Structures are given as C-alpha cells and as structure tokens.
Amino acid sequence: MACIIQVDDVAQQFGDRVIFKNVSFTVDEREIFVILGGSGCGKSTLLKQMIGLLPPKAGRISVCGHDVTTETEAVRRNIGVMFQSGALFGSMNLLDNVTLAMAVFTDLPAAARNEIARMKLAMVGLTDAALRLPAEISGGMAKRAAIARALALDPPVLFLDEPSAGLDPITSAGLDELILELRETLGATFVVVTHELQSILAISDRCVMLDREAQGMIAMGKPKDLQAHSDIQMVRAFFNRESV
Amino acid sequence: MSNAALHQNGDVLAFSGDLVAKNVGGIWKSSIAAAKRAQAATLTIDISGCPVIDTAGATLLLTMERTHGGDMHLQGAETQGTALLAQLRKIIPPPLTRQEEQRAAREAAREARAPTALENLKIRIAFFGETIVALLALPAKLRYLRGSNFAHIADNAGLKALPLVVMLGFLIGMILAFQSAIPMQQFGADLYVADLVALSLFRELGPLLVSVILAGRTGSAFAAELGTMQVNEEIAALTTMGIDPETMLVLPRVAAAVLVMPALVVAMDVSGLIGMGVVLMVFGFPASAIIGQITFAAGPSDFLLGLFKAMVFAAAVAMIGCRSGLTAGNGPRAVGEAATSAVVGGIVATVLLDGLFAVLFYRLGL
User: Fold this and answer.
1) Quick check: B93 and A130 CB within 8 A?
2) CA-CA distance, B305 to B243, in Å (whole number)?
3) Rg of chain B over CA atoms, in angstroms?
4) Considering chain A, what percentage of its residues have pLDDT values greater than 90?
5) First CA to last CA across chain A, in angstroms?
6) Are residues B141 and B84 located together in one domain of the fold?
7) Which residues of chain B make contact with A136, given a CB cutoff of 8 A?
8) What distance lies between CA B4 and its chain's CA centroid?
C-alpha cells in the first residue's frame, strides 16, 4: 500500500508553550489512522496542521504528494474535512450543504448535483433529511451530514475531528460502521482524531498517541497491540482505563 | 485524469475516461438523453474504458438506468467503481416529488418568517414592561449585578466611543459654520453663525448625532452580544438558574448607556464649538467675540435640555439593542438580523423621540 500522508518531525508551539515536537508518522492508502490522546495534548492542532489551517512551526507534512504549507490548494483538492461541531452552513438545507463544493469545483448541471448529493446523503443514512436545515436535525445526523459534505467530491483522504464526541453509544457505533463502510465502498483513507476508546478499537488500523506531558507522541501501532503489550504507563492507562 | 466521453455503438452506450465528479458534468445531459432514447428493453452500457468511477459516475449510471426504465447491463464492469455502484444501488433514494419540495420550501419559509407588525409590537411592549418590572424589583436583586461587568460595558459604550464623537463633533462644527458663514456674510451677520451653531448643537445636533453613534456602535454590539448568548442557549441557562436576563443583562447595559451619554454629548458639543471657532477665527473674528456670542445666544437651559433628551435617547437605544438580542432567533443569521434591527430601531426611535420632545418643549415654552 502506498503512503498517502507523511508527517516529518513536526512541531507546534504557542508563545513559549510547546504543544508537541518531533512528531513523525506515515498514513497508508485506504488506512484508518487515529490520532489519540488526552485533552490538551495537541490532537486537533496536529489535525489543523495536516489540513493546512495552521502552518507547523517546524517539520513538513505532505498529503497525496503535496506539501501542506507550500501547496495548500493542491492538498485541499484531495481532502474532505469533518469538523468537530459539524460546521454545517445554517442557512442552507443539507442538500445545499453537500452540493456547494460541486457547484464551485465542477461543471455538473444542477439536477446532477442534486442527484449526487442525495446519493451521498443516502450513503450516510440521511435519505429523508435532504431538505431539512441543520437546526432541524439531531447532533448525530449533523455529524453524518458533515461527513456527506466532506465526501462531496469523493476526496481520497478524509479527516474527521472527534466524530463520536457528544453522541450516545448507539449513534457512535453507527458512525463507526459508516466510516468502515465508506472505506470499503469509496476506497478512501481516513485520519480520525478521537479519544473514544470504543471507536478507536472498532475502526482504527493504526494509531498514534500524543501526550501533553511528553510534548509529543509516546506510542504508535495497532490499537490492540498497544492495549495488550505497551509498557508505557500512559498508554496502558488509556487503553485499559487505569488511573495514572 | 482522462476526460470522460460517451460513444454509441449500436445499442451499446460506451463510456471512456474517468467517470468522476470533475469529468461527468459535460456528458451528463447527453448521457441521460441517450438512455432515454435507447429502444432495447435492457440498457447496455460499456464501462470497460473507465479506469475510475466515483460516486458522481455511479450516480450517472444509476440515473441513466432509472431514466431508461428497464434493466441495465454493464459490460467490462471490473473497474474500481463497481463495488460502489452495487452499494449505491441498494440505497438509491427515490426521486423527490414536487409536493415534497414545495412542503420543504413552505417549512423553510415559515422558519424564516419575520414576525408581523402586530407580533413585533407585542414583543416590544412586553419587553418594555419586563424591563420596568426588573427595574422596580432591582433593590431585591442587587446581587445579580457585577460591578466589573458594568464598568466594562460603560468603558466600551463611553470611553472607546470618545475619539469618534470628538472627531465627528469637530468636523460637524466646522462644516456647519463654514456652510452658514458664507451666505450670512453677505448680510454682515457672520458673527451670528456662533448663535446658530451653538443652539443647533446644544438642543438638537449634539444629542441626535451622539444617539446615532450610540445606536451604530453600542446598540448593535448589545444586540450581537445578547443574540449570540441567545443562540448559544446562555440566556436559557440564566433563566433556568432563576436569574432573569432583564436584571442581569439589560439593566446594566441601559444604565451604562444612560450614564455615559451626557459625557459623550458634552464632548460632541465642545468639539463642535471648537470646530466652529476655528472657522470663525479664519474669517477674522477674535476668540473673545465668539465666546461672548455663544454665551449670549445659548443659556444653561439649552444645554441641559439637550442632555436630558440625550439620556432618554440612550435609554431607548440601549433597550432596543438588548431587546433585539434577547428576541433573536436561532443560527448565525439571527445575530446579524438582531444587530441590524438594533441599529435601525435605535435610529428610528431617536428621531421619533426627538420629534416628540420638539412638540413637548414648544408647548412648555422651553
């Protein structure tokens, strides 16, 4: 499998406060890669760097062969992002939220855009909600709609920020299944930021764990291996729900 | 990525190139039309020339099948997108009916509908009444108020508006003096420009202009701040804690606006007079003559009436700003609408009240 994302020796700090340093890993094609760690360890910051919203203080990130800092536009044509809050446009119904990128970046006629968008919404289980406004749907539906919007142009890489946050266990499990299903049908690569243990074990092929105290990554590998064999106290605590 | 194209070989519709979102736009309509024209009971589509098919491509194929009305047979279906096609076939949504679209449009219109004039009037009267009740009950609820918050609001509404008020006052004074001095000079009455500008500023323009500035700066800020709190359910949180928003949020804002208003009006009046003085001095009048003329023409009652009016304007602008924020709807658009409503409402109320005062002062001989 080809490497599709490469993170080399990346660092971030705000003022004198170092968030993380020396973070390096690669993500392979069709892989579901999870970035995990406790609150404040820099998971979302790293995600922002990977999608080109925050330039790294040091190091280099490339997505689909393009440097995130210098070739940001090329990177953005190859990614879809689901933000933690969903970030759906409140004045547009779900159909319009999904068709927006198609209207801007393709020459598809309006009827075609609507057909494709409704197909995307059907893929995430929102067939009947296409004409509803974001304010009229539940949190779980908003997350699904945000994934449909991220899928609008079938990008090869999808970044999901805390997809399970704030959801009940059943909805959360449904979302995990959806991610696995989309990987199978679309052949997409997923980078998921989460600290939901059940989700990590359910979907992740590999994961990297960041730690605030260590100011960087402390472990990387398959989640089941980390759970069973890691000798790092923080990793054991995270996976086995032990107190530190 | 190769461009997609459609070729017709007898009864077979053959695609070539990548069937992906960026490519299929140009062939969408012709493909649907070709599927509609196809006579055979089974629509045969050759996709052996398509290395990649994404959701858009798969949707095109499924839409062609639906348009044709019969079965679809895919030739050369060993490409990447066939699994996706099979998956989409299972979940393909039924076409939207006209009734569904109309119902959704009606629901959206109902959601977005602005209150009628009568509903608006009711909201305003209710809000005014609630604020008065909150004011009367204030002695028992003093602990709801936070001094630092009040100081912060007063600082934003007053001190931070001061440079703008001084600059506008100075310019207005200069413009008024200059515009009136030239025609009055023809009658040798150019010194009376001081009377005209001083009276205008003290009784009308000072309070009116500061009130407009207050509506634009502070009223809109109140509306946006409280509107955001409303959207984020912070107002609901306050209410469920048993703290009424009128006491905690509205009264400090109204009090701060009323308190800073006289200071702003004095700043506007003084800077306006200075602007006028500069122009008259350019016309050759000494400062002592200008000051003498001002004190002769305008008395303390003119100045105090202006201050009184300004304080009433400030209360109205602040209350309208707070009302717009607290009655904001949901979503980010609601905050913008609340701010607009605050500015427009504040300016309209100021002008209406000014007209009312003009009649009242005339009747009272003031």
Assistant:
1) yes
2) 37
3) 34
4) 43
5) 37
6) no
7) 111
8) 46
Please name the member of A130, A152, A186 whose beta carbon is closest to the beta carbon of B84: A186
Interface predicted TM-score (ipTM) of this complex, two decimals: 0.79
Residue A167: which pLDDT band, with cuts at 50, 70 and 90?
confident
Q: Is B233 on the interface with A (CB under 8 A)?
A: no
Asked if the model's pLDDT at residue B100 lies above 80, the reply is no
**Which pLDDT does position B110 carry in this prediction?**
63
Contact B21 A135 (CB under 8 A): no
Sketch the domain layout of chain A as residue ranges.
Answer: 1-78+157-163+189-244
Within 10 angstroms of residue A135's Cβ, the number of other Cβ atoms is 15
Contacts of B342 (CB under 8 A, 6+ apart): B215, B219, B220, B222, B223, B320, B321, B324, B325
Per CB-CB distance under 8 Å, the chain A contacts of B333 are 90-91
Q: One-letter amino acid identity for B304?
A: L
For residue B216, the model assigns a pLDDT of: 95
Q: At a CB cut-off of 8 Å and minimum separation 6, what does B353 contact?
A: B309, B312, B313, B316
Query: What whole-number distance in Å separates Cα of residue B279 and Cα of residue B174?
Result: 6
* Residue A127 pLDDT greater than 80, yes or no: yes
The residue with greater pLDDT, A166 or A188, is A188
What CATH number has the domain spanning A1-78+157-163+189-244?
3.40.50.300
Surface-to-core class of residue B117, CB atoms within 10 Å of its CB (0-12 exposed, 13-18 middle, 19+ buried): exposed
